Amino acid sequence: MRKFPAPIHRAVAALTSFPGVGPKTALRYTFALLRMSSHQREQLAQAVLGLAQISRCGRCFAYSEEPTCTLCRDKSRTDTMLCVVSESRDISTIEATGAFKGRYFVLGGTLNPIEGQTPETLNFDKLLDRLRDEPAIKELILAFSPDVHGETTMMYLSRQLKSAERRVTRLARGLPLGADLEYADEVTLSDALTGRRDV
Ligand SMILES: [Zn+2]
């Protein structure tokens, strides 16, 4: 990269920590930031700093402002169904369908040994703890993207959960193979939930 004043290099280095952002894109973003008014930049910086108030819900491990998130505290939801997802953002995707009224659990990723994601680095033990502590849970819905890592994770979970003596289901086929849950449209995802099948 060409020589720029040190603050520009620092901003570029910080921005390359985003997924898919290389030095060129980071430089473009940095120049966009320079074109903003100092007030706009201040607001952006405050928004980033405000994320420090977010931690993980102690029950479902979704991002939350409170020690227990609003979905876990919602008494109108049923405790008998637990939807296991990869990431916090998958919850909002499923919530948008309005087709699920149970509880959630965030595994914190999918199995991907090459990237260092193993059962030990995911919230797998915490899932087993939760099943032990909550006998009310009768069914686990594995709602992972049907890509290679999602499939591997669902296969592993279904095998490990055999002894948990709960019904284990997964979303119906209908989600295109390799698709990301995040980009599934609400109707397709809602159908996939309704038509879920045992694993
Ligand atoms: Zn929660």
Jot down its keywords:
Dna Topoisomerase Vi A Subunit, Chain: A, domain 2, two-stranded antiparallel ribbon, binds zinc ion, alpha/beta, 7 strands, 199 residues, 40% helix, 8 helices, Helicase, Ruva Protein, domain 3, 5-stranded mixed sheet, elongated
Describe this structure in words.
- By secondary structure, the chain is an alpha/beta fold.
- The chain has 2 domains: 6-53, Helicase, Ruva Protein, domain 3 (Orthogonal Bundle), CATH 1.10.8; 71-198, Dna Topoisomerase Vi A Subunit, Chain: A, domain 2 (3-Layer(aba) Sandwich), CATH 3.40.1360.
- The chain has helices at 6-15, 23-35, 38-50, 70-73, 88-95, 124-133, 148-160, 186-194; strands at residues 55-56, 63-64, 81-85, 103-106, 139-142, 167-170, 197-198.
- The chain is elongated.
- The structure holds zinc ion.
Task: Set out the fold topology.
Layout: H1 6-15, H2 23-35, H3 38-50, E1 55-56, E2 63-64, H4 70-73, E3 81-85, H5 88-95, E4 103-106, H6 124-133, E5 139-142, H7 148-160, E6 167-170, H8 186-194, E7 197-198
Parallel strand pairs: 3-4, 3-5, 5-6
Antiparallel strand pairs: 1-2, 6-7
Helix pairs in contact: 1-2
Q: Report the order of strands and helices.
A: HHHEEHEHEHEHEHE
Specify Rg, calculated over alpha carbons. 20 Å
Q: Count of DSSP helices?
A: 8
The number of distinct β-strands equals 7
The CATH topology of the largest domain is given as Dna Topoisomerase Vi A Subunit, Chain: A, domain 2
The poorly predicted ranges are none
Q: Tell me the CATH architecture of the largest domain.
A: 3-Layer(aba) Sandwich
